[in-house]
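Researcher: Here's a chain I'd like modeled. Treat it as a single chain, no partners, no ligands.
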Amino acid sequence: MRPRLADVARMAGVDISTASRVLRGETNQRIRDETRERILKSARALDYSPNTLAQGLRTSRSQTLGLIVPQLDNPVFASAIRGAEKSSARHGYSLLIAHRESGATDAVYHRLSHGNRADGLLVASLDDDRLLREELESTHTPFVLLNRQLPGSPYCVVLDSRAAATIAVDHLAQMGHRRIAHLAGRPGGFNAGERLAGYRDGLKRHGIPFDPKLVAVAGYTAEGGADAMRSLLALKPTAVLGATLVTAAGAMAVLHEAGLQIPRDVSVMGLHDAPVATMLYPQLTSVKMPTELMGEIASDLLIDLLNGGTPEPVAPLAPDGLVVRASTGPAPR
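Model: Modeled as a single isolated chain. Structure tokens:
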């Protein structure tokens, strides 16, 4: 028999209304943290999931969040989706996922926000600030941004991409590399700027002059990484830092085609980590980022907003650390 809210309340030793408020994600300061945790533990132990349809009928809400991502085949966004699913399920919400490529003119924001389909939006977007602001403000729907900032919009959860890029350059410089190329994101993008700044921070720390010729725009695709790497081959970098795992993979393919050995001739690494990094040849060195945690925190933040809360801004999430594999080695002599 399916567990009921009353069963959760009984196991946690609280009344039904208190259990209901906690499981709806309400931010009630009168409920002690230990009581809240006891209720959540009881719900997990009983495998209790709220009847979201009934809740929606009572509150005129759909009990659904919309999550919009620009790339479905990027492991970074797959990880963020897992985190958002974890949070939304914990609070009794469903998660509706939509794909919208950068610069697209479709009405995905309106499709999700209108007709009571989604109470709020989690948005990962590569669009420029002006377009994104126009799209989001026209929906009149609460939103939280994932891994980007938008002037005047305080609710965002971002990764510390600047610190991650510096960690990567540190690793390469400590192995003697001085001609370190960077496969950059789209010019003008928030994260592209942060990664480039971190790359330059790392060079400066090790006394390596910044050479703009060693920076090539790759965007966020394997094809972009491959094209950028081809444009850099004549400059003979000894190491390459991809802005993402995907662009690093594209660069590796071009190096193989050119008859260069990784890492004997050129070391390669990327920002972000995923199981696919171990399937490349050689396995890719990376800087692991808390992308799943980012999705989880963003969903928590949005649900807090929907329940009338005024959450504090979230500090950038620090990298999880360097993951050294076989694609990086000492600089060639």
